[in-house]
Q: What sequence folds into this?
């Protein structure tokens, strides 16, 4: 929370973004043993200009014994564009999928809402524990499902990608993401160390995930316009989708 009387970035954003950011941190604090993950100081909070509008980016990062980096980013361009971006990067000693979630909103409407637990092993399948908890979840028939991008083969069969058409659908999306996160936290904590051979496959899988996500032209174009090509490249590869060692 902001210590001054000015509202925090989160308080100014679309209600679903505010609720989801709160929910993500609530679940993390409830189920995981968090410690800080230190981003470069100048990248925790960033301000710039985009086509005459003020652009603000706020990052929060944590780590745990199972996750090398858990990143929650909120961003706002003037009063026209609101963004939430979250990725949980597992340590490569465990066969744990990548949790990723994005919300994009503008002028009071969420235009894109995506969440997934994306497998990184050789079979491109979620571990059995995940499947057994995700499969029984009832299918939600959203009115406006969206098509995944060309590089979207990194996502699982449980991936949600929609344009919520009502507050009810926003709440259904929020509830399903909370379920994903709870399952993820429980399964991650119960996971076992993998063999060196499996670790090599997982590193390759995580690198593939990050490389594909870096192909998101919309994100890159916004960052390049506001901060320049070099800054955008650095931010995409060190903050948003840094590769495992």
A:
């Amino acid at each position: 929370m902001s210590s001054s009387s000015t509202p925090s970035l989160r308080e100014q954003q679309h209600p679903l973004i505010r609720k989801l950011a709160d929910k993500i941190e609530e679940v993390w604090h409830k189920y995981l043993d968090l410690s800080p993950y230190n981003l470069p100081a100048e990248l925790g909070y960033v301000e710039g200009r985009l086509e005459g509008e003020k652009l603000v980016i706020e990052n929060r990062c944590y780590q745990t014994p199972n996750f090398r980096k858990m990143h929650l980013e909120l961003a706002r361009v003037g009063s026209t564009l609101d963004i939430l971006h979250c990725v949980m990067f597992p340590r490569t000693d465990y066969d744990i999928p990548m949790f990723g979630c994005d919300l994009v909103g503008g002028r009071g409407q969420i235009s894109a809402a995506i969440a997934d637990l994306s497998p990184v092993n050789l079979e491109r399948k979620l571990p059995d524990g995940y499947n057994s908890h995700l499969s029984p979840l009832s299918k939600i028939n959203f009115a406006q499902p969206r098509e995944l991008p060309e590089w979207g083969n990194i996502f699982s069969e449980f991936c949600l990608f929609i344009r919520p058409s009502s507050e009810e659908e926003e709440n259904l999306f929020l509830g399903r993401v909370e379920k994903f996160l709870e399952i993820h936290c429980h399964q991650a904590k119960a996971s076992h160390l993998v063999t060196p051979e499996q670790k090599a496959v997982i590193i390759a899988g995580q690198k593939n995930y990050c490389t594909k996500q870096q192909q998101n032209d919309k994100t890159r174009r916004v960052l390049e316009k506001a901060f320049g090509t070099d800054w955008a490249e650095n931010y995409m590869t060190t903050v948003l989708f840094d590769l495992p060692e």
